[in-house]
Amino acid sequence: MSPQKKKYGVMGGTFNPIHLGHLVVAEEIRHKLNLDKVIFVPTGNPPHKDNKELTDAKDRYLMTLLATVTNPNFKVSSIEVEREGISYTIDTIKAFRSKYKDTEFYFITGADALLELHTWKNVSELLNLCKFVTATRPGFELSKIETEIKNLEKRYNRNIYNISVSALQISSTDIRQRIKDERSVKYLLPDPVKYYIDKNCLYR
Ligand code: ATP
Ligand code: MG
Prior knowledge:
By secondary structure, the chain is of the alpha/beta class. The protein is built from 9 helices and 6 strands, in the order βαβαβααβααβαβαα. Helix 2 runs antiparallel to helix 9 (191-199).
């Protein structure tokens, strides 16, 4: 009998900055699907793209490390931060599959990201290489998500998990705006992330 495969969640995002919404999604899905670990993968900075809102990849990577350091089941990968050129999820999953043998991967997104999935590179191959997990997110209607999941399942002949998680109406966009407006962001993100933002004068 072959040994049981490990199960790793992969959570991609810009994490600009990482907040409690991301952490609760990762922890609840880890628990519900019995995952051994969740690997957070901050995106790199796309070359030649003028995006003033997108903080340097190094800062976003370090904030993700600070936010996850106390959870032994969370890991952060710098694979996309270090990669030259545009990073695609399919390439990251392929790299993880060759690095971690005998492991099943569960790619975790929020409901808003699922609605964009049809625009991703090589969706069909991606759904063959990992299982896809959608977490509920406040502001994104469940019925719309369920319809989209049905469409995708039919088109790609693959199951997509739809997992209900505690609703936290937090977004990085809102946090950036609050900092610009000098409003409080306390209790929306881990304190060390807040200290990092203050120390490096981010989002002002
Ligand atoms: P931004 O406002 O800059 O887009 P964000 O809060 O959406 O930031 P991202 O880094 O874009 O954060 O998201 C990474 C992943 O986490 C996405 O799949 C997104 O859907 C999910 N996510 C983010 N916040 C939440 C939340 N509060 N509840 C559920 N899922 C979330
Ligand atoms: Mg987003």
